Amino acid sequence: MSLVRLIVLGIVALDGEAHGYAVRRKVGEWRVDSWTRVQPGSIYHALKQLARDGRLRALAAEESAEGPDRVRYRLTEVGRAEFVERLEAALGSFDIEALGVGVAFMDALPKKRVAALLDDQMQRARANVAHLRALRTETPEEGQAPHTGDLLDLWIGNLDATTRWVEGIRTRLGPA
Q1: pTM of the model
Q2: How distant, in Å, are the alpha carbons of 94, 114, 118, 121, 174 from that of 163?
Q3: Which of 58, 85, 94, 118 maximizes the CB count within 10 A of its CB?
Q4: Are 74 and 57 in contact (CB under 8 A)?
Q5: Contacts of 36 (CB under 8 A, 6+ apart)
Q6: CB 85 within 8 A of CB 109
Q7: What are the residues whose beta carbons fall under 8 Å from the beta carbon of 174, sequence distance 6 or more?
Q8: What's the chain's average pLDDT?
């Protein structure tokens, strides 16, 4: 999943329209580079690519005292659909970065939909933990590569922690 596309589409969706500098500034204010591997410099490339792909529509350029004219962008219907599709996928992801980006933009979806996606994510995570625990009981202790038991313990711990974190968010959302 391209998180930079989701982030750019999400910021433009939240603001209604935005130019590259405004998107980059918001990425900096949110400290996105501290909770994803998305770097602020990738924003401009993503904006241009999304415009080429028909996900964003370029509006009139604004003059800027700080440098070149700023092109404002607005989501197209196709861009809005991609944003929702990527956001829903992120909220169901076990990838911690993707899930985090999904949570950052979850207010863009109806509360009932977010609740359903998070409930499904937790149910799948619990099923995976149960499966991994069953595998762990069948895995002999070993002191050499590939340390399968240790890796299973790592995955179980990560999924357990993520599930507890999602449960906290789901509780704060309240009833759907």
Answers
A1: 0.89
A2: 9, 15, 9, 8, 17
A3: 118
A4: yes
A5: 3, 7, 97, 100, 101
A6: no
A7: none
A8: 92
